[in-house]
Amino acid sequence: MINMNSQYRDTFEALAKQIPFEPEICIVLGSGLGDFAEKVETVKSISTSSLPNYPQSTVEGHSGFLHFSKYADKKLLIIQGRIHLYEGYRISQCVVPVFIASKLNCKKILLTNAAGGVNINFKPGDLMLATSLNGINIQKELTDLIGLASLEQKNSIKDFPSESFNNIIRKAAVDKGIRLKEGVYWYNKGPTYETPAEIKYMGKFGADAVGMSTVHEAIYAAYLGLSVASISCITNYAAGLSPQKLSHQEVMETAELVKKDFEGLVKKIIELS
Ligand code: HPA
Description:
This protein has helices spanning 4-7, 9-16, 91-94, 96-103, 139-146, 148-153, 163-176, 196-204, 215-223, 248-272, and strands at 25-29, 41-47, 65-71, 74-80, 108-117, 127-134, 181-187, 209-211, 227-237. It is α/β, with parallel strands linked by helices. The chain has a single domain (4-272), classed as Nucleoside phosphorylase domain (Rossmann fold, 3-Layer(aba) Sandwich), CATH 3.40.50.1580. Strands 5-8-7-6-9 form a five-stranded mixed barrel. Helix 4 (96-103) packs parallel to helix 9 (215-223) and helix 7 packs across helix 10 (248-272). The protein starts with a helix and ends with a helix. Bound molecules: hypoxanthine. Hypoxanthine is lined by residues 114-116, 188, 193-194, 210-212, 235-236, 238, 246, 251.
């Protein structure tokens, strides 16, 4: 088991000196959804490159930010700049934002992501609430991180993703007139997209959406006792389900189109939380 407290003591101590408040809700922004941070009041933004030992995004010019923000009287920690296993990072590095959220006493974490639609009833532009998350491709890493045995013993994991948090999200979607899809998010380590055969396999075993993040963050957050929910922006048909070739460009373009709905939904979720 990895001791995050000792590995990231310096990171946390440097951060703790600067924070304007203890946030209640953490929101991790997925690919193409980063603009949300500008749609709420920012009290303080801290560049992750200023924090010792904080893993940096490998994409040039894209330093990460931890935004301490406010909306509807709620104190937020917004994470802009996710850390992925496919960038060559270890799992303990990928969950640093979750570790920080927990150390700052956040009670809830909303994980957002871009994902391919495996369910044939989903189309690009849909938003999907995760009713379950599949980490079968990442079990070894999770064992290194927390030990699966101890994870199974956690009561909190029985409510994972959090049903009460998911109910807030369902209500927020109804209030905003958004037809929220629901389903299973399936993790693929990446960095390559899946083959059509892999998508067929995942679909047979219950996947509704596939992406390259979230599951380890979600499991670690639940392990630390946070209420967890995940919303996917379906940015494309998964491989083999449409004649179009998959590209990061398409992912970013669809995320751009769905931005307004996403912003409205997340704001409503914050209000109702
Ligand atoms: N597969 C994996 N990750 C993704 C996809 C996909 O089709 N779309 C956006 N992220």
